[in-house]
Amino acid sequence: MTSSVERLELWVRRSQDRLARDRKYFGEIGYRQSLISRSATKLCRSRIMQPSLWLIVALAMVPIAAVSQSLSSTSDPSAYLPSATATNPELAYERPTEKTKVRNYTFNAYGPYPFVGAGLAAGINQLNNAPPEWHQGAEGFGRRFGSDFAIAAIGTSARYGLSEVFREDALYYRCECRGGLPRLSHAVLSTFIARRGMDGHRVFSFPALVAPYAGSFAAVYGWYPDRFGAKDAFRVGNYNLLAYMAGNISLELLYSSPHSLLSRMHLNNAHGAPVQGPNQ
């Protein structure tokens, strides 16, 4: 037993110089870990390892491992970097005010875009002579222009009015996602989806589905020739629905500068929108 202790003391003295050098290169934690690992290895090879020494080595390794884990986690630079959620937080939905709703309704129903759209539609109908009862010339174009403009205005009024009844947000929110396909999908789906509640959760919108047909039925049973019926109203309503979808796509993909007409719309994304919000 005495010779074993002497050999152990000799080994400890020889190891002190080596461990002092390790302290320079590995730091305090590396020094302690090196001490424990080398002590265990040397003692096993010397065959003088007593059960009490095994217990000391095991107990010594526990706090060192804990300290090493703590220091490694706190010294990791990524621990101080903001996470992906922190760098790209989901912005809170802000329900539009009544002033914003009225402004957007007025712009959507009676702004420059409805006039341009009605002019294009009237030009196409003029070329196709549809309906033929309205004839050609300036008078025919005027009747077609007034009809197309009224159909669009009634559809917009129905969408905003029914949205108030169902407590839905009828405004269009551009997508904060990137990529042409995700943005295109967002624009198409937004044709049938609206926001509801203070949290702005998405729901299937009955007003968005019905509104395109409100104007067409009003035209068929209001000022169209008598030969037109419900089938024609549904056909024109389908065109209105596709036109509304195309409008969403244009609002999504066209850039809106701070001074453009699109900036008057409620488009809360990074492309020059006045208010930010969750749009994905």
What can you tell me about this protein's structure?
The structure is a single chain. The protein is mainly alpha-helical and 280 residues long. The chain contains 9 helices and 3 strands. The protein folds into 2 domains: 80 residues, no CATH class; 167 residues, no CATH class. A 3-stranded antiparallel sheet has the order 1-2-3. Helix 6 runs antiparallel to helix 8. Strand 2 and strand 3 form a beta hairpin.
Name the features:
single chain; 280 residues; mainly alpha; 3-stranded antiparallel beta sheet; 9 helices; rod-shaped; disordered C terminus
Gist of the model:
With 280 residues, this protein is mainly alpha-helical.
Helices and strands in order:
Layout: H1 2-46, H2 51-75, H3 84-87, H4 98-110, H5 112-128, H6 137-165, E1 168-169, H7 180-189, E2 193-196, E3 201-204, H8 206-220, H9 230-253
Antiparallel strand pairs: 1-2, 2-3
Helix pairs in contact: 1-2, 4-5, 4-6, 5-6, 6-8, 7-9, 8-9
